[in-house]
Amino acid sequence: MLPDGFTWVAAGLLGATIGSFLNVCIVRLPADQSLIRPRSRCPKCETPVAWFDNIPVVSWFALRGRCRQCRQPISPQYPIVEALVSALWVGALWRHGFGLDALTAALFGTILFGIAVTDARHYLIPDEYTLGGLVLGLGLAWRHGVRGFGAAILGAAVGFALLYVVAWAGEKAFKKEAMGGGDIKMMAMVGAFVGWKGVLLTVFGGALLGSLVYVPLSLKKKRLVLFGVFLAAAAALAFELGDPIVRWYLGFLQ
Ligand SMILES: [Zn+2]
Asked: How far is CA 253 from the centre of its chain?
């Protein structure tokens, strides 16, 4: 079904609202704070933000990036995340058409985006994204019936097992923790959305992206590897383009 004008606008507004909530997750989850209470407040003067100053994207520009009370700057991260998630939800509608496939793509993309930002800022991947996303992925897999659900369970198991083995081998090889538990739980979640072939593609793609970025960087100085960021990018590619890539690859073997 081709979306009409109203559906496009609704997807954009819903995406911006979800993006606003993702901002709250990005700030509060690493600090183990509640997502619901207290209400949004200025981090500098702690004045609660009125509803009309809390409209995604629009309010930041209306306030010219400053708190209404204390006039201290508000991070541009807020409107940027809101605009990007809004674009992501419109993009999911464009690619999949109106329906559960678009909703699944939009939710999966939003979770991956939250993981990437949080991993980049804090070097950790909160359980709310991974375990919450795993439950969501298994639930949404029912849109393809029992077979879809079975494929999601298998994908989650392969994702968990593969990263568990990689983490164990890395620890043996480097005599220190090479990969966090967050990465392992993340790949169980990713597996529920992309299936076992998608898991292989994601881990391969994540390692490839990681080495492309880190080999030039590590020549200069040592850095913590943000594997979650690269896994998130590769997982999004595996979700959208996994089937054509696997078919293209298998074409060589015939
Ligand atoms: Zn303030």
From this structure: 33
Ligand 1 centroid distance, CA of 145 (Å):
50
For 66, phi then psi, to 5°, come to -130, 150
The Å distance, Cα 88 to ligand 1 centre, comes to: 30
Cα of 42 from ligand 1 centre, angstroms = 5
| Distance of CA 38 from the midpoint of ligand 1 (Å) | 15
Q: How far does the centroid of ligand 1 lie from the alpha carbon of residue 33, in Å? A: 20
Look at residue 73 and give its three-state secondary structure. Answer: strand
CA of 40 from ligand 1 middle (Å) equals 11
Claim: this prediction has a pTM higher than 0.85: yes
CA of 69 to the centre of ligand 1 (A): 5
Q: Where are the alpha helices (DSSP H) in 97-180?
A: 100-122, 127-140, 145-174
CA distance 83 to 63: 16
Q: 23-78 pLDDT, tens per residue?
A: 999 999 998 899 888 888 888 898 999 999 999 999 999 999 999 999 999 999 99
Rounded Cα–Cα distance for residues 168 and 152 (Å): 24
Per residue in 157-192, pLDDT (tens digit) is 999 999 999 888 878 877 776 677 889 999 999 999
